[in-house]
Amino acid sequence: MRYLAESPQFTGADIALILLVLLGLFLAVAGTVVAGCIFARKAARGSQKALILWGVVALVELAFAIFATMAGGQLAALIGGGALALQLALYFTARAGTPD
Question: How many CB atoms lie within 10 A of CB 65?
Fold first, then answer.
């Protein structure tokens, strides 16, 4: 096989590895958002363990939003900040609701 010019050559295994890494990152971000939403509602109902776990998840998401902004990723910063806003809304609505 002759190449016409020097260029990076990606094999199918390279592309599959890149896609698997991207899928893992997507699942990690989606998992922290969902976990944060669940812990926020439980924390509003008085669970001390959920409050601590929600704080950890919120710090991870805050770091994600800050580092994404520093790296120039406005969409990633919007996702991180939006997730925190959603969790705060869930927390305050569950807190204002009737106790279970």
Answer: 20
**Per-residue tokens: 5:** 């010019």
pTM, whole model, 2 decimals? 0.76
Query: Pick from 44, 47, 26: which is nearest to 88 by CA?
Result: 44
For 69-99, the pLDDT digits (tens) are 888 878 877 888 889 899 999 999 998 876 6
- Report d(CA 93, CA 4) in Å as an integer: 62
Residue 55's H or E segment, with its range, is helix 48-70
Residue 8 carries which DSSP code?
Answer: -
The identity of residue 78, as a single letter, is L
